[in-house]
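Take one record.
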Amino acid sequence: MGVGESGNFAAYGFAPASLIAPLGCVSVIASAVISVVFLKETLRASDILGGTLAVAGTYILVTFAPHKSTHITAHLVQVYAVSWQFLVYLFIEILLFCILLYLYKRKHLKHIVIVMLLVALLASLTVISVKAVSGMITESVHGHLQLTYPIFYVMLAVMVASCAFQIKFLNQAMKMFDATEVVPINFVFFTASAIVAGIVFYQEFNGLALLNIFMFLLGCVLSFLGVFLIARNRPKIKKESRTFIAMDQIPGRTQTDKVQPAPQSVTYGALAAKLMCNKARPTDDS
C-alpha cells in the first residue's frame, strides 16, 4: 500500500491531476479480480459488465485527457494561489464545508453523502497540495531548487492536514456504513473534486478542444458506472452483533425492577450462602 501511494504521489509531479485521479478505478477492478481469484467469490454478470465499462472509460479518458503538464515551480504555485478563480473556488469550498460540518456535528445528520462530501472537499485541497509538493520536488531533483521557498512548506502543511482529516472522516464513514457503499461513492466524489481542482487551480483544460472535453467526461462517466456495478450488491462485511434483551421483555417475568431481593428479606444473600456451603463441604470431608 505504501509503495502504491508513493507511486501515486510521484505521478502528480509528471501528469495533470485530472488524468491521475480517474485512474483510481483500476484499484477497484484489481480488488474485484483478487476477490474472485484468491477469495473464491462468485463472478457475477455485473462484475464483467462493470469491469468492461471501467476499462473502456479509462481508455477513453486517458486518450482524450490533457497530457501537457507544466513544470510546477514555486513562483507558478504562488501565481495560481492568488488567481481570482481559485480564490472564488476556495471561498465556495470553505462555505460548503462549514455548512456540511454543521449539519454533521450539530444536527447529527449521519448521511453517507454528507460524510463523503466532506471527504471530497478536503480531497480537492489534497490534490492541489500534493501536485504542488510533488512538482516542486521533481523540479528540485532536476537541478532547479524549489525547497527554499515558503510556499513549498505551506503546501506541505496543507497536504498533511487535509490528508489527516480525510482519513478521520473516512474512518467514521467506514464505521457507520458498509464498505460496498463507501468505496464507489468516495471514488466518484474524489475524482470529481480532483478534476475540478485541476481545472480551477492548474488550469489544465486551457486550450483543450471541446471534443476532447466531452470525450474525457464520457470516459469518467463510464468509469463511474463501472465502479458502481462492481461494488453493487457485493457481500456485506459482517460486523459483530451485540444484542441485549431488556429485562421487561423476558418471557414469564412479571416484576423486573428488583433483580435481587431487598436487604430486609429472608432470602437476601441466600444464593451466596448456599454457594459458600457447597464450597466448604469438600474441605470438611477431607
Confidence is low (pLDDT under 50) at residues 238-244. DSSP finds eleven helices and no strands in the chain.
